[in-house]
Design goal:
alpha/beta; 9 strands; seven-stranded mixed sheet; disordered N terminus; single chain
Length: 210
């Protein structure tokens, strides 16, 4: 990652998280980060800002966090070399799992902050999670806030009707967009847009606390 990309990553983070604060109770703030690559500015920044946070990162393309994660943050940072998918594929190398399986593995039923940058797999992964919730009769996403990079490049699986349907389904589970930024650094590679969604139906969200 170039120094310009690192600067853009930090500016994006600061714009996305201006007012986030730790929970008032003793429960840990749970953060999931999908798509670490070799740059862990986001992970370090969140652990620095939220002293009660526990961060769980997942990436099948690297073996560990990037050098930005400081030693004193290590005890609250946990890494798994796995991919996020629409179904569990433990026999793959590296393995892929659904979001619900990873949450069950870590004994979590709620995620405060969910960051996802998985190069186009966000659509099938989140659809599979919503399918699972719907089958359980759950009408609200068990996530307080989503920070996502949407990949809108021309693709047979990414069409205007399919993205609209996917977006409206997320809204039905309570998610509302509150911030966006076009990723100009990647404009030559495709149409990438970074969004922040907040769960308007979620009474557990620390963003909705008084």
């Amino acid at each position: 990652m170039s120094k310009y990309e690192e600067r853009a990553e930090r500016q994006t983070l600061e714009a996305q998280q201006p007012n986030f604060k730790p929970k008032k109770n003793d429960n840990a703030t749970i953060i999931y980060s999908f798509g670490v690559n070799d740059e862990s500015t986001f992970e370090e920044e969140m652990l620095e800002r939220l002293p009660n946070a526990e961060l769980f990162a997942f990436d099948f393309s690297v073996n560990d966090f990037g050098p930005q994660l400081l030693p004193n943050s290590r005890p609250r940072a946990h890494f798994m070399k796995v991919g996020l998918g629409a179904k569990d594929e433990p026999s793959k190398t590296p393995p892929f799992y659904t979001l619900q399986s990873l949450m069950a593995h870590h004994k979590h039923d709620y995620i405060d902050i969910f960051k996802i940058d998985v190069e186009g797999a966000e659509y099938i992964a989140m659809s599979a999670f919503m399918d699972y919730l719907q089958a359980q009769g759950i009408e609200t996403l068990p996530i307080g806030q989503i920070m996502i990079e949407l990949h809108l490049q021309d693709d047979e699986n990414v069409t205007t009707p399919s993205v609209l349907s996917w977006w409206e389904r997320l809204e039905s589970f309570g998610m509302r967009p509150v911030w966006l930024e076009v990723n100009l650094l990647a404009v030559a590679l495709g149409r990438y847009v970074e969004y922040v969604w907040v769960n308007a139906k979620d009474m557990k969200s620390v963003l909705l606390e008084e």
